[in-house]
Amino acid sequence: MMKLDAPEQVATLASAFADALAARGFAGDYERDLGAREVASTDNSIYQVRPLAIAYPRSAADVQRIAAAAHALGGKVSLSARGGNTGTNGQSLNNGVIVDFGRHMNRILSITPTPTGAAVLVEPGVVLDQLNATLAAHGLFFPPMVSTASRATIGGMVATDASGKGSRIYGKTSDYLAAMDIVLADGTEWAVTPLNRAAVAKIAQGTDRIAAIHREALRVAEENDAEIEAVFPKINRGLTGYNLQRLWDAQADRFFLAPLLAGSEGTLALTAAITVNAIPTPRTRALALIRYDSFDAGLRDVQRLLKSDPLAVEILDDKILSVAQEDVLWAQIGEVIGPAPATRPVHAMTYVEFAGEPDQVRGGLDRLSSLANDGPEAIVDWKIVTDPKAIGQLWSLREKSVGLLARLGGGKQGMPFVEDTAVPPERLADYVAEFRALLDGHGLSYGMFGHADVGCLHVRPFLDMKDPAQADLIRPISDRVAALAKSYGGLLWGEHGRGFRGEYSPFFFGPTLYAELRRIKAAFDPRNILNPGKLAAPDAGATIDRIDAVPMRGAFDRQISPALLEEFDRSVACNGNGACYSWDALNAMCPSYKASRDRAQSPKGRAALLRGWARAESIGSAEREELAEATAASLSTCLSCKACTTLCPVKVDVPTMKSRFLADYYRTRKRPARHRLLAQMERLLGVARRMPRTTNAVTHSGLAAPVLARAGFVDLPAVEPARRSQLPAIATPDVLAALSPAERERAIILVEDSFTATFDGALVERTSALLKGLGFTVFRLPPRPNGKALHVVGLRKPFAKIAQARVAEQGALAGFGVPLVGLDAATALMNEQEYREFAPNDLRIEGLETFLQRAIGKGLCGAPRPRQDGIYTLLGHCTEQALRPETLATWVRILAHFGIEAQAKRTGCCGMAGMFGHEIEHQAMSRRLFELSWSDAVAGGGDAVLVTGFSCRSQVKRLAGFRPRHPAELLHALL
Question: Which of 271, 425, 566, 795 is most open to solvent, judged by the fewest CB atoms within 10 Å of its CB?
C-alpha cells in the first residue's frame, strides 16, 4: 500500500486525481468525502483500510480515463478494482483509489448463440444472479455457483477465479471465459482472445507494453513447463493467481491471457468487459439430505457418496445447523429437514445434489439408493427432496452459512482468514482432523461447512478481534494451517483468493515460479499501480503486505467506549457478508440500496458509518463531526422496514440503531419542525377521527399544501375513519372476565392501529363484519398512540412511555385467553420488536391470517367451499415479509378454504413505509422503489389485487390510481 502520512496529503492527492479525471472527461462518480471512504474501508474480511477515494466508472472509456489519470500522476495513486465487495481476505482493500464497478457498469451487453449455448458480453459489475435471471429466458445459465450469487459480480468472480458448489463437474470461472477487454495501468486498452503461437510471436515483436506482456508471458510458460507441472497441486481448485498452468497449451497451440488474469485480483489490469460462455440449464434437480451423528464420519463418507456421481456434495456442521434454526428461513425449510431424533444428536448434514436430464437424475438417485445399505452407522437418517422450491430454500440455508456463523460466540465471531483451504478430497477427513486439533489446542470454537466433494472446506474460528490477545492468534494459526495444507498436497486459498495472504505465495509457488510471477507483474504494471501489496510486486524494492501488518477492524473497534459498543453492537457485529447488496429487486432487504446503488445507503454501509462515528466520539477524534453528518445523511434514507433485522444473516438491526443514533445526534442539535409535528401526530389523529370532514377540508385545501410542504410533507391521505355505529364493543378486563370458556373460544380482540383506524376505517368495519359473519364475537382495542414515528426519529423518551402504556394495557387483556389480532403488521409487530427494549414482554399481537388459519384448523369456519371463478394476486408488506415470512402463504391457504384462488407474488418495498413516502425529499426514492417491483405487480389488476399492508395500499392508490383490497375485504364481499 502507499504511504500516506497525513490527512492533508490524502486531500491533496484525492484532489489531484479528481483534476486528472476531469481533464480526461471522466463521466462517472467520484467520491472522496470521509463518509464514503469509511464505507469503502471494509469488506468481508478482518481488515479495515480507508481508501483515498472511490471512482465509479460508467463505461469502458471511463475505465481507460481512470488508468490514464493514475499513470499521469507517476504512480503516486494506486488503483484497486472492486465488484461485489464481499472479499474475505481484503482483496479490494487499499489506501489508493477504489474503482467500483457495481454502481454503473452492470449491464448485459449482448447474448450471441453458440453451438454449446451462448457467448454473453457483460460489464464487470453484472451480478451473477442478474446474469442467470436473464439467461433463464434462453434456457441457459453461467455455471460457477458461488454462495454470494445475489451480489457477487462477474468481474469479482474473474478476479478470484471463483467456483462454488458443483465445481467438480462445472469447474471454475476461468473455464467459461471467451474474451476480456482490459485496460492496463498506463491506460492501454487490449482485447484478450485465444491466440496461437505464431500470433503471439508477431505481437511480441513490437515495442509497446502489449508486446512486452506477450513476450514475457510466453517465455515464462515455455521455460518453466516442468516446474509448473511439479509445483501446481493436483486438485480441483488449483494454484490460482497467477495461473501459469493454463496460460499456454503447446499441444493445442493455444495461448490465452484470460486464465492468467483470472485470479489475479486486479493486480495486472482493470477489466472493462468480459465475454463468458453460458450453457444449457439442467432440466431437473434432486437433493438428498443425509444426517450424521459425527462430523468426521460425514466427511469420511463423502468418497463413498461420490460413487453415485452427483453434481455436488456439500457438508454443514452442527454449529451451522443449530443457529440456522433461529433464522427466519427455518420457518420455510424446518419441515423439509425435520426434527433431529431425540436419542441421536445430529453433528453433520450433507447435501448430495443431482442435476441434468430427468433420466440422468433418476439414475443418480438410483445409484445413491444402492449405496444406502453400505453406509456407516453414523448415518442418522436421509431423505430425497425433489420440489424445486424446497431445493432452492435448502441451498439458501447453505448460502447463509457464512453469515450464520457471525451470530455465535457472543462477542466472538467466525473470522475468515484460513477459511477456504483445499486439499485432495480423499485426504480431507484426515486433514480436517489435524486442523481441528490445531484449533482445539488454542481453545477456539469454530464452524465448518463447504465443498466436501472437492476438498475445500470453510472454517471460521471464533475470535473477538477487539481483544489484542485473540487478534495475535491470526499469525500463528495462519502459518500452521498453511504448512498443514501444503503437507496434504493442498493450498491455503482454495476458493476466495489470496488478498493480504499474498505473503504465502513464495511458500506455495516456490522461489523459481514466484520470481517469474514478479516478472509478469512487472511486464503488466511496472509502476505497481494496480492493487499494490497483493500477490506479487514488480521488483525487489516493492513489498507484499503481511497478514498482521495491515490494519484490522478489531483494532478500531476496541477504541469504541463500552457504552457506545453496547448501544451499537449490531454495527460492530456486521461482518461485511454483503447480503444487503442483493441485486434482486424482489428481495425485501434494504430498499434504499436498491433504489440508489449507493453502498452508504445499505445496512453494511450504515453499520460502517455507525462504527466510525462511535469510535470518533469515544476518542474525541477531529473526524467525529464529519462522520456524524455522514451517518445522519445515510440514515435519512432508511425506511425502517426492519428487513435487515431478519434477512441479514447477522441481524444488523439498523432501525434500532438509527433511533439510538438520532437521539444522540439531536442532543446537541435543533430538531426540525417536522419532528415536533410527528411527536404530536397521533394525538392529532384522534382529533381528525372525530372531525374527518373538517380535517380533510383543511389538509387538502389549496392553502394547506404550501404549509405542509414547508413542514416537508406531500400527498397526505384523506381521513376516512370507521363509522362508530359499525364498530364492535370495546374489550375491557371486566367484559372478558364475564365470557365463558366456550365464548372465549369464539372471541377475538381487534387491536386498531392509529393509521388504519384514521385513514382506512373501512377495513376495520369489513373485518369486524366478516368475523361476525363467521360466528365470532368481536371486541376491539381502540386506536392508541403506538409511537412508531417517535421511534423512527429518535424521540426515545416519549416513545418509552408509550411502549410501557401499550404493553400494560395489552397485558391486562392477554390473560383471558382471547387472541389480540392486528390488521397491519408494521405496528402489530412492535410488541416483538421496538417495545421490548423499553417494556420487556412476551405479548404477541398476531396477524389476522394466523387467527383465521387456527380457526379453520379447529373447524370454526365451516367446511371448505367450492372454488369460485377468478384468480387474485396477493402482495405483502415488506416488514411482514421479513418478520412473518409465512404470511402470504397462510393467506393463500385461507382464501382457498373459502373457494378463492390467490397467487402470492414476490415484491420488494413499495416505497411508502409510514411517513417516508410523504416526505418531500424522499419522493424520487419512494417512486423509484414502487417502479422496481410494485408497478408491474399491480398493473391492470384493480379488484384482482389484494394487498395486506396499509402503507402499501396507500402507495398503490397514490401511484397506480386505485386502492387495492385487503384479503379480509375480499372475503367480506364474497361471503
Answer: 566
Using the Cα atoms of residue 238, residue 244, residue 250 and residue 256 in order, give the sign of their dihedral: positive
Those residues whose C-beta lies under 8 Å from the C-beta of residue 658, and which sit 6 or more positions away, are 606, 635, 638, 640, 792, 794
* Cβ pair 727, 756 in contact under 8 A: no
**Tens-place pLDDT, residues 668-727:** 999 998 998 889 999 999 999 999 999 999 988 888 888 888 888 999 999 999 998 889
Q: How far apart are CA 828 and CA 825, in angstroms?
A: 5
Do 393 and 385 meet the contact criterion of CB atoms below 8 Å apart? no
Residues in CB range of 511: below 8 A, 6 or more apart: none
User: What is the amino acid identity at position 717?
Assistant: P
Residue 723: predicted pLDDT: 92
| Omega before residue 242 within 30° of 0, cis | yes
Give exposure, 207-229, as e/b (b: 16+ Cβ within 10 Å): eebbebbbbbbbebbeebeeebe
- H helices, E strands: number in the chain: 46, 27
44, 512, 556, 742, 931 from 644: Cα distances, Å: 17, 49, 24, 42, 21
Rounded distance between C-alpha atoms, residue 908 and residue 587, angstroms: 5
What 3-state DSSP class applies to 110?
strand
Percentage of the residues of the chain whose pLDDT score is greater than 90: 85
pLDDT digits 0-9 by tens, 438-464:
999 999 999 899 999 999 999 999 999
Residue 407 and residue 651 in contact, taking contact as beta carbons nearer than 8 Å? yes
**Residue 117 forms beta bridges with which residues?**
114
Q: Under the phi-then-psi rule, with left for phi > 0, alpha for psi from -120 to 50, and beta for the rest, what region is 309? A: left
The per-residue pLDDT for range 722-761, each reduced to its tens digit, is 998 889 999 999 999 999 999 999 999 999 999 999 999 9
Query: How many other C-beta atoms can be found within 10 angstroms of the C-beta atom of residue 462?
Result: 21
Grid cell at residue 229? 507441472
pLDDT in tens, 16-65: 999 999 999 999 999 999 999 999 999 999 999 999 999 999 999 999 99
What is the H or E stretch that residue 950 is in?
helix 950-960
Helix axes 673-690, 692-699, angle to 10 degrees: 140
pTM reported for the whole predicted model: 0.95
Single-letter residue type at 147:
S
What is the largest distance, in Å, between two alpha-carbon atoms of the chain?
99
